[in-house]
Amino acid sequence: MSKEYYRSQIESYKRDVEREKAKIADYKEEIAKVKIRKSRETENYARQLKNANSSAQKHNIRASKARQWESFAREIDREKDKIESCKKNIERYRDSIARSRESLKRAR
């Protein structure tokens, strides 16, 4: 194969790496948004607990808070899993770049 073929292949892999990096940035931004929502919910639950009249209401509010926190944790874990997947893809692309560079050196 020609040297030009390998060069274009390397450039394609580099674009793929940049695309994966952009995805990681988006996922990190999404995690930050979830954390902001969580902090707002903290204030909301504190206000609800303060205004609750009975211990049954307080129990329900605390149970709701626990479910909500589990939901936040699941969202954050999903985003972290996506980040890990992107990092694996980046490693795969970098390995492909290295192989293409080796092929480029051997090409005539």
Question: Would you write up a description of this structure?
Answer:
By secondary structure, the protein is mostly helical. Helix 1 (3-51) packs antiparallel against helix 2. It is built from two helices and no strands. It is rod-shaped and about 85 Å long.
Keywords:
single chain, 2 helices, mainly alpha, rod-shaped, 108 residues
Summarize the structure.
With 108 residues, this protein is mainly alpha-helical. It is 94% helix and 0% strand.
Using only C-alpha atoms, the radius of gyration works out to: 24 Å
Mean pLDDT: 95
State the oligomer: single chain
Tell me the distance between the termini.
8 Å
- How many domains, as an integer? 1
Shape: rod-shaped
Helicity level: over 70%
- Total number of beta strands: 0
The H/E string reads HH
List low-pLDDT spans: none
User: Helix/strand-derived class?
Assistant: mainly alpha
Main beta sheet: strand number and arrangement?
none
Number of helices: 2
**Fraction of residues in β-strands:** under 5%
Map the helices and strands.
Elements: H1 3-51, H2 55-106
